[in-house]
Design a protein that fits this description.
This protein is 86% helix and 0% strand. By secondary structure, it is mostly helical.
């Protein structure tokens, strides 16, 4: 479970880090960043930060759903095992 969650977080980080120039900013933020030399210098990092903030809820929800799915599989496996053990005992 931890490995899967770590892989999801790593995957989201790689997607955010490899993002090329995109319009992740609103018009006001883009105007403020491109209007000054300092802003132009940090606009790429600002875009990555926005994309990371967009991806984070999906990673968290995916981890939660994965945990629910795996616990459901374990529960069904135990129930099936108990049913099979009951049939084996009845067959003797």
């Amino acid at each position: 479970m931890r490995r899967t969650l770590a892989a999801l977080v790593l995957g989201a980080g790689l997607v955010a880090a490899s993002a090329g120039p995109s319009a992740a900013q609103c018009v006001m933020c883009k105007t403020a960043l491109t209007g000054s030399p300092e802003g132009r210098g940090i606009s790429a990092e600002f875009n990555r930060a926005i994309l990371l903030m967009v991806a984070a809820p999906y990673v968290v929800m995916g981890g939660f759903l994965l945990g629910v799915y795996r616990s459901r599989l374990v529960h069904d496996g135990r129930r099936l095992g108990a049913r099979l053990r009951g049939r084996l005992r009845a067959g003797r």
